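Section 3.1: Structural characterization of target chains.
Under the original work plan, the team committed to producing a structural model for every single-chain target entering the pipeline before any wet-lab resources were allocated. The record below documents one such target. The sequence was received from the expression subgroup and is listed exactly as submitted; it comprises 346 residues.
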Amino acid sequence: MRKVTIQDIAKELNLSRNTISKALRNSEQVSYETKCMIIKKACEMGYTKLSSAVLKQFKLKDKSDEIKTIVVLMKRDISIFWNSIIMGISDELNRCGGKLQLNFINDEDEKDLILPLNLDEDVSGIIILSVLSQKYINEIMKHDIPAVFLDAPSNVEAIANYGDIIICEGFNSVKQITSNLISQGLKKIGFIGDITYCKTINDRYQGYIKALEEANIEFDNSIVAAYHAQNKFYVTQEVEAALDNFPYIPEAIVCANDDIALDVIRYLKNRGLAVPRDVAVTGYDDMESLTQAEPFITTVRVPKQKLGRRLVQQLMWRIKYPDFPKEIIFLKAQVIFRESSKIKVE
């Protein structure tokens, strides 16, 4: 959303920039009637530098106090994880008097660059929850609406100029998990996760690599599935195919998320291997739906509802201060050690 300038107001009213500037400062050199006309027009156009004193004097409402419509865009991937984030978004919008419009983007619309129709309406800001294609993001940005992204492509610079980015920390937390496995005497530690998909998974992979390096453990690429997968290892068949391609079963497998971890545990159990006795397995996200899995999965807890609220807070700040430099914000996550990574010495 382009910033309204004094020149814009001058052009609209066919007055000089000097007259507009004086009126907006409430100068006595401009007649009351002219000031009233100019200030009213500035308010209508969304000029953001009107002081509260001027607005009060001329009995005008600050445009920033109006109810804001926030559009949330995400792919069709309903799960408790996303539900919790959306709940946080909704709660924070209710608190600050905003309206939520949720739009699901299917694969066909993304491929054909078909945007939600309501982007042509009076939208104050956009929250993008999914990592969408660069071409699709480019189309969204043509509407010049303030945006905040949850996560980013592996090449974060691709969208860094488009809006603020909020990322859950992954490097240090997965490094901590991997180091814990190493401290238990494990050296053959594998990894599964599509690092080409997004920055967060790439960060988790880098944390895994760093832990191996610091422990002087030789990296074994044969037990790593970090390549691009069509469904990002979110389907069981892709996880099983990755494990089938391992020349041997590692002592431990660090997974990019809990969904992958659960599929790994099922795969191992089907082959008569026990977790963690034979193989330690870890995840990321702390998915509520998976906490009933046996054994309990060592994971990283993401504050999902707080994450949703933080997305709204950042977007509201960005709407108010559109000219400040774009930001990349990391939210701290908490490692939760459970049974799946505890090696029992017999």
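The CA atoms of residues 189 and 252 lie 5 Å apart.
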